[in-house]
Amino acid sequence: MTMAVDTLAVPSENVLAPKKNRIQVSNTKKPLFFYVNLAKRYIQQHNEVELSALGMAITTVVTIAEILKNNGVATEKKVLTSSVGMKDENRGRVIQKAKIEIVLEKSDRGESPPATANTSTEATTTDTKTEMAKTETATELAATASDEKK
Predict the structure, then answer these.
(1) Rounded to the nearest 5°, which phi and psi values hold at 86?
(2) Least CB-packed of 59, 92, 111, 123 within 10 Å?
(3) Number of domain units in the chain
(4) For residue 42, pLDDT beyond 70
C-alpha cells in the first residue's frame, strides 16, 4: 500500500512543476521586448518555446511570435486556442476567457533580416534621385519660360 502512494506522489509533483520553456505572457506586467528577448533565450536553450496568454494579452503573444518569425529566429510549430473558465473575483461567478498557446521552434536560417529589405531600399533611393532630377528640370524649364516672357 505504501508503494502505491509513493508512485502516485511522483507524477503529481511533475504535474505541478511548470514547463521549462513556457512563457506566460501578461500585457501589464512586463514590456513587450522583455518577452521577445526571453523567448529568444529559451529558443537558444531548448530549441523551442511555448508562449501562452489569456484574454487581452493574446495580442501581445501574437506580436511576440511575429517579431521572432520576421527576424528569422523562429518558425511556427503549433497554435492552440481555447476557452478557460475563471472565477470573477468581483462578482463571484465563473467567466470564460480566451486562451492561446503558440509553440515556436528554432529556425534553420538563424537570426538574419528578410532578404527583401535590401532591394526595397535601393529601389527607393533610385526613385528618389529620379524624382529630384525631374523636379530640378521642371523648375529650370519654368524659370526659362518666365525669363522669356519678360
Answers:
(1) -130, 145
(2) 92
(3) 2
(4) yes
Phi, psi of 77 (to 5 degrees): -105, -45
Q: How confident is the model at residue 110 (pLDDT cuts 50, 70, 90)?
A: low
Domain membership flag for residue 141: yes
Q: Which residues are bridge partners to 86 per DSSP?
A: 95
Give the span between the Cα atoms of 130 and 137, in whole angstroms: 11
User: What's the CA angle centered on 20, arms 8 and 112, to 5 degrees?
Assistant: 155
Is 40 within 8 Å of 73 (Cβ atoms)?
yes
Q: Do 102 and 61 reside in the same domain of the chain?
A: yes
Q: Which residues pair with 48 in a beta bridge?
A: 105
Can you give the pLDDT at residue 118? 44
Q: Cα separation of 104 and 35, whole Å?
A: 13
Residue 62 sits in the same domain as residue 86: yes
Residue 3: inside a domain: no
